[in-house]
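INTERNAL AUDIT FORM
Audit reference: QA-55
Scope: verify that the stored structure record matches its stored sequence.
Auditor: D.O.
Record contents follow.
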Amino acid sequence: MTTTMLRRLHSRLGRVLSPAHLCTRSQSSATAERKRFYQDVSISQGEGGLYEINLDRRKLKTPGGKLFTVPNEALAIAVATEWDAQRDTLKFYTMHLSTLCNTALDNPTQRNKDQMITAALKFLETDTVCYRVDEPNALVELQKNEWDPVLHWMEKRYDVTIGSSSSILGPEIPNATKDTFRQHLTSYNFWSLTGLEYVITQLKSVVLSMGMIDRHLTVEQAVLLSRLEEEYQIGFWGNVEWAHDYDMYELRARTAAGALFVHLASESSTVKRKLMQD
């Protein structure tokens, strides 16, 4: 895959991957930068059918020293596009797909699939859309009108009972519901679970994450619903200049990258064809 072809793909993937469009430098991220040291980005197929990322024909490696390999061409193209999108300075904190690949490859916490599924399902017990307020009435109605349809869709889609509660303890999630989701998540491969868990931690919601992964919600909708109470407070009290927009775009960037990673890690020929279309 040549640099020219990658740049054509950049126009399609840029909404998710482009640091100029999605991310603004923060003080805490200032150290996660270095001068760009390569000219060309390409991909190649190596041993076992795995795909590698080459920077000026030098093989990319993970922070743990492993050869950076991904399981399919679609994900390789997306990661290569992310590297090609960097300009004079590499801003690693904007390279979410590369970070997720590094996490899957190095597995720094040394977890297996069962442990990852258990961690993901823990969020169901404290899911954002399941916790409701008692007052003010306007926010009560807003949560009901905006969250209930998604919650009902989720219950119908997976034939489960979730519910909501204004109690500090939250709703009591039936064991049958947890078992259903556990069985569903077992069908995900390790890489996809890495991305899904990342999305869930961003939105603090299994319901919104699954709604987005299943394409019932867009990234923008899922992010807005995850910030519903905050958006209500901003509408009532106003917001700090720039802070609201920065937080919103940062969350959208991370969530979009995580969702893209899930789909690409579960790559099919259909996904690859869509990526290659212009």
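Auditor finding: record pair retrieved intact. The chain has 13 helices and six strands.
Action required: none
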